[in-house]
Amino acid sequence: RPAFAAAFEKARQRQADIEPIDTLLPGNEERHMRFYVNAVADGTGEGAEESAIVYAVETTEQKALEGQMAQSQKMQAVGQLAGGIAHDFNNVLTAIIMASDLLLTNHRPSDPSFPDIMNIKQNANRAASLVRQLLAFSRKQTLRPEVLNLTDVLADLRMLLARLVGNDIKLKVDHGRDLWPVKVDIGQFEQVVVNLAVNARDAMPNGGELTVRTRNVTTEESKSLPYRELAPADYVVVEVEDTGSGIAPEVLKKIFEPFFTTKEVGKGTGLGLSMVYGIIKQTGGFIFCESEVGKGSVFRIFLPRYIAEARTAGEPGEAPAAPAKIVDAAKDLSGSATVLLVEDEDAVRMGGMRALTSRGYTVHEASSGVEALEIFEALGGKVDIVVS
Ligand SMILES: Nc1ncnc2c1ncn2[C@@H]1O[C@H](COP(=O)(O)OP(=O)(O)OP(=O)(O)O)[C@@H](O)[C@H]1O
Ligand SMILES: [Mg+2]
After folding, report:
1. With a 6 A CB cut-off, is 297 part of the ligand 1 pocket?
2. What distance in angstroms lies between residue 242's CA and the mean position of ligand 2's atoms?
3. In order of start, what are the domains of the chain with their CATH numbers?
4. Which ligand 1 atom is at minimum distance from the Cα of 242?
């Protein structure tokens, strides 16, 4: 209101360039308006009654888009940061795990250092699993998508979920009819559901109901849903609903951010939903959460319907292979094969080199793809296996 008064005063003084006023529509917090106040510019108007023209423009849509942009940019920036750190960390951890493996093979279990080395390895493995969640969030994972019917997947998962949530929580699985197929990585999808179920369990310490529901959503229906980001298309929707504590609106904005947690230190790392978010995004889907404090929450996942098309050669769009993954050599060649080890991280390459040579393999190492090709040619192609 004072802004209006000021603007009208300026108009009375015949000023041009009056700042527009952004405000919420009274009585409806959801709608944004922008008012333009213009001075009436005819000089003849001696004693004219009106001195200003006010235009009102509804900016709700624009505001929502701005908010959405800011949010997605934030997630992207955090993702990039997390992904960069996770990638380097992954290499460091791989080197540590390899070195402890080497040490373990050289020590007898009765050796006093053995439990210590074991401890190092176990902790490095724990760190590696955290890093994997971060990589999932930053969508840097290698997914192995297959065409699946989620009805089967969820039916198989039911036992595990029931055990996970315990006896005080009633688990309901509500399968949609004639569910369309989707193309997802089954292991990752299970991770998603398990994570949502664990969160739901934590939100219902005194028991409650957990419902997992699936159904088809047609393009037509997807247009009518109140989610702006959702591109109109056919989707299979998976809902995970609980009757737990619910999430306050200011918390709701942050739940997908990595390391955001409301749980006590040592109880939650805040990576669960970040991982869920990353996996769903990488799969081409969407996830939304609606919640009411005291009533419960529902997480709604939209996975694009898979429509079989004519076979195209190669699968584009898949993430590059995770680095530093040592593939087991084929059984019949074990201990005698010629291995070409390609790895750009020195520490990881050295570890792999030692591990392989100590098992009797002939190892040629390369620190880049180009170098690997040169070595491959120099050897006349006599390489049994390439590890990269
Ligand atoms: N179903 C739910 N009901 C109430 N709050 C939830 C629910 N799911 C998530 N939250 C809130 O979102 C936060 C982030 O969840 P997220 O799964 O990312 O991390 P976390 O569960 O705290 O830790 P982690 O999953 O890494 O062990 C939680 O701390 C909690 O406050
Ligand atoms: Mg969690």
Report:
1. yes
2. 14
3. 2-58 (no CATH), 65-137 (1.10.287), 146-304 (3.30.565.10), 331-387 (3.40.50.2300)
4. 1
Q: pLDDT digit of tens for each residue in the chain (388 aa)?
A: 677 777 777 777 777 777 788 888 777 777 888 888 777 665 555 555 566 778 888 888 888 888 888 888 888 888 888 888 888 888 899 999 999 998 998 888 899 999 999 999 999 998 988 888 888 888 777 788 999 999 999 999 999 999 999 999 999 999 999 999 999 999 999 999 999 999 999 999 999 999 999 999 999 999 999 998 899 999 999 999 999 999 999 999 999 998 899 998 878 889 999 999 999 999 999 999 999 999 999 999 999 999 987 555 444 444 444 444 444 444 566 777 889 999 888 888 888 888 888 888 889 999 988 999 999 888 888 888 888 8
Find the 364 Cα to ligand 2 centroid distance in Å. 43
Q: Is the CB of 165 under 6 A from ligand 1?
A: no
In whole angstroms, what separates CA 346 from the centre of its chain?
30
> Counting ligands in written order, which one lies closest to the CA of residue 253?
1
- CA–CA separation, 194 and 89 (whole Å): 25
Distances (CA, A) of 230 to 269, 318, 363: 29, 22, 50
Distance CA 53, CA 37 (A): 6
**Gap between the Cα atoms of 242 and 299, Å rounded:** 9
Is the shortest distance between the CB of 263 and ligand 1 below 6 Å? yes
For a substitution probing ligand 1, which of 273, 274, 291, 300 has the most ligand atoms within 8 Å of its CB?
273
- Atom 31 (ligand 1) nearest CA: 262
- Asked whether 163 lines ligand 1 (CB < 6 A), one says no
Which residues make Cβ contacts (< 8 Å) with residue 312, sequence separation at least 6?
Answer: none
Question: How many Å lie between the centroid of ligand 1 and the Cα of residue 240?
Answer: 13
- Residues with Cβ < 8 Å from 180, sequence gap 6 or more? 216, 234, 236, 305, 306
Quote the CA–CA distance of 353 and 340 in Å, as a whole number: 10
Strand order in the sheet with 21-25: 21-25, 28-39, 52-58
